[in-house]
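Field log, afternoon session.

UNIT: design team B
ACTIVITY: writing a sequence onto a fixed backbone
BACKBONE:
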């Protein structure tokens, strides 16, 4: 199973990116997590710029989504919303449809951020993604590295549970 992971934070030491790295460390054999790292390169969404001459960055984003069996988003909340860069990335695939029917899990590195989770869920549902699981691992106030998270039984258990549910959704959809 190929899972594309997308962090909604562009920060170099993002807790959401770290959480996704930890998920990759605890994933079962046969489950490969690959990180999408082009969020910051995508141009601002403009329907006029779509079509045959669309940016290579947009093509690559769509290609990686298409190639994935499932997707995990982990995002911070900014001003009670989804970070603009993540919403921008999603806007580029509303029309092209790479998320239609795709099993999607929402991970979250903060126990707060309920507005962003709700807004992201709504956006993904209206795009016809299959939102299957929410996993919150509260890293607020910690500076934990991925390895430490993966070695923590409780945190690793939460991540494995989310990955299992995602795997079941992929199998159910086949
Ligand atoms: C500009 C800005 C706005 C924020 N607004 C909120 C907010 O509305 N609600 C919230 O819970 N956290 C808010 N936060 C805190 C971040 O969501 C939180 O620190 C998050 O865990 C950072 O994720 P990261 O480590 O992956 O970058 C805000 C942070 C910034 C920089």
């Amino acid at each position: 199973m190929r899972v594309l992971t997308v962090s909604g934070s562009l920060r170099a030491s993002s807790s959401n990116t770290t959480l996704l790295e930890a998920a990759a460390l605890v994933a079962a054999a046969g489950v490969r997590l690959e990180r999408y790292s082009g969020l910051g390169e995508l141009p601002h969404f403009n329907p006029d710029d779509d079509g045959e001459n669309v940016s290579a960055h947009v093509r690559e984003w769509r290609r990686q989504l298409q190639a994935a069996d499932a997707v995990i988003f982990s995002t911070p909340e900014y001003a009670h919303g989804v970070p603009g860069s993540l919403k921008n990335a999603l806007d580029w695939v509303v029309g092209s449809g790479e998320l239609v029917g795709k099993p999607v899990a929402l991970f979250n590195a903060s126990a707060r951020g309920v507005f962003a989770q709700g807004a992201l869920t709504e956006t993904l549902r209206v795009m016809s993604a299959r939102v299957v699981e929410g996993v919150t691992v509260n890293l607020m106030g910690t500076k934990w590295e991925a390895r430490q998270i993966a070695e923590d039984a409780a945190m690793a258990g939460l991540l494995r549970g989310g990955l299992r549910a995602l795997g079941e959704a992929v199998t159910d959809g086949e």
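LOG NOTE: The first strand starts at residue 2 and ends at 7.
NEXT ACTIVITY: expression trials, pending approval
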